[in-house]
Specification:
With 376 residues, this protein is of the alpha/beta class. Helices cover 27% and strands 21% of the residues. A twelve-stranded mixed β-sheet has the order 3-4-5-6-7-8-9-10-11-12-13-14. The chain has a two-stranded antiparallel ribbon with strand order 1-2.
Length: 376
């Protein structure tokens, strides 16, 4: 493998260290970082066009005083209600989720798990044995998603221990790793031959690793991220990408289609476009559902079928709900996945609400499409 030499990445955990912000900006943004933590790599900050006040990369990583608007909850998808052991969630029958990454390479301003970095939540998986025992006993679990935080912040030796043990569980089919390392610090992959050898070994054992890489804007696909992607593909990993719909960042049909087409060209399949969760601090990034659906459909017009595989979904407390269609008076939603298996595939038709950001904002359910307890 053509792995590049180790590159020293510098981390910034204080906006005071950012030379491109004025003293006045640092003072005003200090109020934001006292509530919502800041973290970035020098590599990612170098992608910002500081002369453009609306630069999308800047909006993704640099705090904004608008984040202090009163809106949302710390855990809008009620993840804690599906926690079966510290750091282990079992919401969907076939999937277990490890909150394994204690931190991230950078803190997305729209993060829906920012609670992990706001207080001592004890949600991160520290002792993997109870989680592994749980999965071993539950044969309905087909795949495990490693997330966090970012799993790739862990040392390769720690990842090897976890992945090797997961690979020994016979009823597991594949392992997913959710990461934004390829945007924030692609050198984590491209300069670590041991990590790539580990992935190659796990893939050879038949537990296919799917890398679910988050890319929120096409400019995150640099020559460095593409190199990392190519190395992961060479190691046998399946490459996917997902992103939330974000106001001022990717909320135009052209920007979205460029992002998806760039991903396909890089060898990464567009997977999910998420409705921005109503998490505290996220109001500046939220786009109403119906506006988002129109943007989504218009973006697909500029793509081939390779990119059109993507689905526009809401990660609701009850399950993944796909936005299926809009009519003049109604919006049609469908359970793509659900905590209650009986809801999977169920359709809901609501009277439209152009100001709806989340399922609970729809209150008028068309009678013939009512399902039992739609808001479990």
């Amino acid at each position: 493998m053509n792995v590049t030499p180790k590159k020293k990445i510098k981390y910034f955990n204080s906006i005071d260290k950012l030379q491109n912000l004025s003293g006045e900006e640092k003072i005003s943004l200090k109020k934001v970082t006292e509530t919502f933590a800041f973290r970035a790599t020098d590599y990612y900050l170098s992608l910002i066009n500081w002369q453009d006040k609306n630069d999308p990369i800047k909006k993704l990583i640099i705090p904004d005083v608008k984040e202090l608007q009163k809106w949302g909850e710390k855990d809008p998808s009620y993840e804690k209600s599906y926690t079966v052991a510290p750091g282990l969630q079992h919401k969907y029958t076939q999937t277990a989720l490890f909150l394994i990454g204690p931190t991230c390479f950078g803190y997305c301003r729209f993060c829906f798990r920012k609670r992990l970095f706001m207080e001592d939540t004890h949600e991160i998986l520290i002792d993997v044995k109870p989680a592994l025992d749980y999965i071993s006993k539950h044969h309905e679990i087909q795949n495990v998603l490693l997330t966090g935080g970012d799993p790739l912040v862990l040392s390769t030796s720690k990842l090897k221990m976890i992945l090797t043990k997961l690979a020994e569980i016979k009823h597991l089919i594949n392992i997913r790793i959710g990461t934004k390392a390829l945007a924030y610090n692609p050198f984590r992959v491209s300069t670590d031959p041991e990590l790539l050898d580990l992935f190659k070994d796990i893939n050879k054992k038949g537990k296919r690793i799917h890398i679910v890489a988050q890319f929120d804007h096409e400019r995150e696909f640099t020559k460095h991220s593409r190199k990392a992607i190519n190395l992961l593909i060479e190691s046998g990993c399946v490459m996917l990408t997902q992103m939330p719909l974000l106001r001022g960042i990717n909320d135009s049909p052209l920007t979205l289609s460029n992002l998806w087409n760039t991903a396909v060209n890089a060898g990464v399949t567009p997977y999910y476009l998420f409705q921005c969760r109503p998490t505290v601090g996220n109001k500046p990034f939220a786009v109403p559902i119906e506006e988002g659906y129109r943007i989504f459909e218009q973006a697909k017009m500029n793509c081939s079928g390779l990119a059109k595989r993507i689905k526009f979904v809401m990660s609701h407390a009850t399950g993944k709900i796909e936005m299926v269609a809009l009519t003049e008076k109604h919006i049609i939603l469908k359970y793509h996945q659900a905590a209650d298996p009986k809801l999977i595939g169920k359709t809901m038709i609501f009277k439209r609400n152009p100001n709806a950001y989340w399922l609970e904002d729809y209150t008028e359910l068309v009678d013939e499409y009512k399902i039992e307890n739609p808001f479990i």
